[in-house]
Amino acid sequence: MSPDSAPAAQEPDIPTAHAAPPGLLDLFLAFARMSLAGFGGVLVFARRAIVEQHRWMTADEFNETFALCHFLPGPNIVNLSVVFGSRLRGIAGGVAAFAGLLLPPTLIMTVLAIAYARFGDLDVLRRSLAGISCAAVGLLIAVVFRMMTPLLKRMDPLALILMLGVFLAIGVLRLPLPAVLLVAIPVSIGATYFLRRKVAA
Predict the structure, then answer these.
(1) What is the pLDDT of residues 91-131, one digit of tens each?
(2) Of 42, 41, 20, 24, nearest in space to 86 by CA
(3) Domain boundaries, the chain
(4) Distance of alpha carbon 51 from its chain centroid, rounded?
(5) Which of 63, 100, 117, 126 is in Cβ range 3.0-4.6 Å of 31 for a Cys bridge?
(6) Residue 120: is it exposed, middle or buried by C-beta count within 10 angstroms (0-12/13-18/19+)?
């Protein structure tokens, strides 16, 4: 390897600068705001708050953490709150983020469920819920493109091929998610391991 190419090979993929870690109350309030703003899905607001607003994670770190949470049992955003809070403040941080994420919407949904049981047959309410569903789909599409940005900037062919393969397998061919993951996870880990060894050699 030539001297000119050595620094480029050692350059980190993601920036290392972060804001100061939040306290337990900050974690609780941050995830509470995410949950209250996240009508139709919290992921959009979670990424915006964690990566862009507070700079507690870089875009790549968020993608990696969310990918891990996606493969764990349970709702992805709940897993993210626990993993993220635990990473910054240990078990107490995980509990604080988890409580902030679930407590406010639980209280609100309890009230709304009572109201829906009484007024759910109203046509105006059904149309309103349909409109909210459309907005939720738009938000989800937007955050998917935002999460793809780091991969597209790096132009990592392996990541792009794996992403396209999983999309085709699940979205087009309608293959079962567990079967796709059983293939995609070891392939991605193995390919990344060998490529990094090759770069380091």
Answers:
(1) 999 999 999 999 988 998 898 888 777 776 777 767 777 77
(2) 24
(3) 18-153, 156-201
(4) 11
(5) 100
(6) exposed
